[in-house]
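Researcher: I'm preparing a figure for a lab meeting and need a structural model of a single chain. I don't have an experimental structure, so a prediction will have to do for now. The sequence is pasted below. Please return the structure as C-alpha cells so I can convert it later.
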Amino acid sequence: MKRIWQWLITALLVAIFLSLANWQWNRADELKNPVEIDQTIIPIDSLIAPTGSITDESVGRRVSIEGKFVSSWIAPNQEKGRDWSVGLFQSRDNAMILVVRGFYKDIPITDQQIRLIGNLVPPQSKDVAETKGNQIGRVDSALFVTKTDLPLYAPFIQAISEEPSSGFEIVPFEMGNKVPGYYWQHISYVVVWTLFAITAIYLLLYQRRLEKNSDKVQL
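Model: Understood. Here is the structure written out cell by cell.
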C-alpha cells in the first residue's frame, strides 16, 4: 500500500510540474507572436460609453469620432523622450476625450469640425513630468475632471489621421503584450519546472533502490 501511495504522489507532482512548464511555454509563445488587433474602424460610442472603463478587448481598437478640439496640452518625455501634443476633444454628442495628436508641434487649435481616427489606449498611470501650466504629467482623463462638466472618456485616442489634416507627425502605435515578463524568462521557468518533474521521478526511483538494498542486507 505504501508503494502505491508513493507512485500516486509522485505522479501527481509530475503532472503539476509538467502542467506549470506547459503554462510557461504557452506564455512564452504568446510573447513571441505579435498581438493581433482588429483593424476595423468603428465609431467610439459603439464600443465604449463616455463614463465607462476600457476593456481588454477594446485596447488598441481603431475608432472614429467627430467634433472639435477645445484646448491643447503638452505631455513631455513620452516616446523616446520626445514630447506629445495632446488635445482635449469635444465630440458632436457633447462628450470629452483626450487625443494624442502627434509629436509636439506648436499648432494652434481652431473651432473647425474634425473627423478623427485613432487607436483607443488606456490612461497612463504614472507621471513622467510635473503637471503645471499647459503641461500634463501623464495622459489621463482624471487630470481633467475639474476642467469640464461634460462626460469624459477614461481612455484616450492615439491619432492616426485627422480630416482636415493636422500637420502633426503621428506617434507610432505599439500594442503592448498582455503577458508580463520576457520570452527567455518564461523559457527558463519551463526548464525549472521540467527539472522538478524529473527530480520527483528520480527521488522515487532512488527511494525504491534504497529499499531493495535494505531488503538484501536484511537477508
